[in-house]
Specification:
This protein is α+β, with helices and mostly antiparallel strands. Helices cover 20% and strands 37% of the residues. It contains 2 helices and 10 strands, in the order αββββββαββββ. Strand 2 (44-51) and strand 3 (54-56) form a beta hairpin.
Length: 153
């Protein structure tokens, strides 16, 4: 039992430390995946559709420094989420969703959508590289994933 408590504590610590970088009002919140974007600096809009078991499109290309308005529509029959992050972080979040499915989540890089709902996420990509996105809900994470390639300016 104590090993289980230790694992849960470590997962929660990882989530808390990840969330400490995601408050939109903090000027030091820039992390390797970028930061919440300024709506007045959006350079373009990218539409994403969630269907049960996939994102359409699942591969996106943006430029370093670009601020994107993602318009996400849940075209499926189930509740879905979209979260941007590194794959190790997304795996931790998906694990936490399995262990604590009823807990509320409010990360700056997360959108939660009911079937038929549409929402926006504005994100600035500050570093070149590859960033992932996924639906971390139980039973969704293995198939509902995508990649964002951030090209160097």
């Amino acid at each position: 039992m104590s090993k289980f408590c230790l694992i849960i504590s470590l997962v929660m610590l990882a989530l808390i430390s990840t969330n400490s970088f995601s408050s939109a009002g903090d000027s030091n919140n820039e992390v390797e995946i970028g930061k919440p974007g300024d709506p007045s600096k959006v350079s373009r809009t990218i539409k994403l559709t969630q269907v049960d078991n996939m994102f359409l499109p699942a591969e996106i290309a943006v430029s370093e420094g670009e601020t994107i308005r993602f318009v996400i529509k849940n075209g499926g029959n189930k509740k879905h989420e979209m979260i941007i992050g590194s794959m190790p972080d997304l795996k931790k979040i998906a694990s936490a969703r399995r262990n604590f499915p009823d807990k509320d989540h409010a990360e700056a890089n997360l959108v939660q959508l009911e079937p038929g709902e549409q929402k926006e996420l504005i994100w600035q990509f500050t570093s070149a590289g590859t960033i992932d996105f996924a639906c971390p809900l139980p039973g969704h994470f293995k198939k509902m994933r995508g990649k964002i390639t951030v090209e160097k300016k």
